[in-house]
Specification:
2 domains, mainly alpha, 54% helix, single chain, 3-stranded antiparallel sheet, 11% strand, 344 residues
Length: 344
């Protein structure tokens, strides 16, 4: 998502820096050329590429949720984004209480928690500031913000109707990643394998099972095994709410990896074909402008937009490689975690 102007009288928005360890990729956005055939092609061509981006990010966000749920089992706070009826986005910290009810921290309790960890305070305040800027941008008369524009999915904020809030939504999500990372680190959950080990130990408290393991096929699809039988984690109904949350996060990760394994080859092929065809468009701009009835003065703008779009569409192999790496990493971490004796 690029930089945008947030409204009359406000300075140009500058994107927040992304944490170097944040693997999330940003969707590719096509620039308008004002040549109808070109714009239709570029919109279609961006489809497979952005589907790969979404698949990649779903895996990354599932891994993050797994770590957050593992930290929560050890008593750490969790982050919640909420879209209010007014359309405003709010940030809360919450945890499971002793009766396994969801308890939302009061402002005094948040302040007490932040007072013991300066890095956590900084991450929390940056996230609060990003949300404040988003809410302010939505309130601007030129932005036409509506409550239905935003949804929360996998702990991230998504915008349903693209508009001038896109960059602000990005900044909220960038800062939420850093905040959740800091909370997980406070509970000594860094690597994905550490989160899975915590789940294995929780499982050992309520289930008498044989040795667990994770297997991957040649494509990277993951199976959780109990002995020589595949284990259906969803059928376990005797888990505590915190443990069930951790189980659900693990199941979602495995399912998102399966989606990637199934979909990536075709999407990668489609994206590569579109990317190759897009490289022929810059040379067609002058004739296309003339045939479309646009003024000759539109040629430089159309050329710039066309060149930028053609370049963006070459990112398919990079996104496919990054997604393949995510698949391999998830399988490796689960294998490592489940190689330890149950309850070990």
């Amino acid at each position: 998502m690029g930089q945008v102007c947030s409204g009359a009288g406000m300075s140009k928005h500058v994107n927040a820096p992304r944490d170097p360890t944040d693997p999330e990729l940003e969707a590719i956005e096509m620039r308008e050329t004002k040549i109808a055939d070109f714009d239709a092609f570029f919109e279609q061509a961006a489809g497979p590429l952005n589907e790969m981006v979404e698949i990649h990010n779903a895996i990354a966000q599932s891994e993050e949720n797994l770590k957050a749920a593992a930290a929560a089992i050890q008593g750490e706070a969790q982050v919640r984004l909420t879209v209010r009826g007014s359309g405003a986005v709010t940030l809360d910290l919450w945890k499971f209480d002793d009766e396994e009810n969801e308890y939302t921290f009061t402002q005094a309790e948040i302040e007490e928690k932040l007072s013991t960890d300066l890095a956590l305070r900084a991450a929390f305040e940056r996230t609060e500031h990003a949300i404040m800027e988003l809410n302010s941008a939505v309130d601007q008369p030129t932005n036409m913000g509506k409550a239905t524009q935003f949804i929360v999915k996998r702990g991230r904020l998504f915008i349903e109707a693209k508009g001038s809030q896109d960059a602000f939504v990005r900044d909220v999500n960038v800062n939420v990643f850093s905040l959740r990372k800091r909370l997980a680190a406070a509970a000594h959950v860094g690597a994905l394998s550490e989160a899975v080990i915590i789940f294995v130990k929780e499982l050992a408290k309520v289930e008498e099972l044989g040795p667990l393991s994770a297997e991957t096929d040649d494509d990277g699809k993951i199976k959780i095994m109990c002995g020589d039988q595949e284990l259906d984690l969803r059928k376990m109904d005797n888990l505590s709410k915190p443990a069930a949350q951790l189980r659900d996060a693990l199941v979602e990760l495995v399912e998102n990896v399966e989606t990637a394994v199934t979909s990536l080859p075709e999407l990668s092929e489609q994206s590569a074909a579109f990317g190759k065809e897009a490289q022929t468009f810059p040379g067609k701009v002058p004739d296309a402008v003339s045939n479309s009835g646009l003024s000759i003065t539109e040629v430089p703008k159309a050329s710039l937009a066309t060149g930028a779009n053609a370049k963006a569409l070459t990112q398919g192999p990079k996104v496919a490689t990054a997604t393949s790496s995510m698949i391999v990493y998830a399988g490796r971490e689960l294998k490592q975690a489940m190689s330890i004796p149950l309850g070990g």
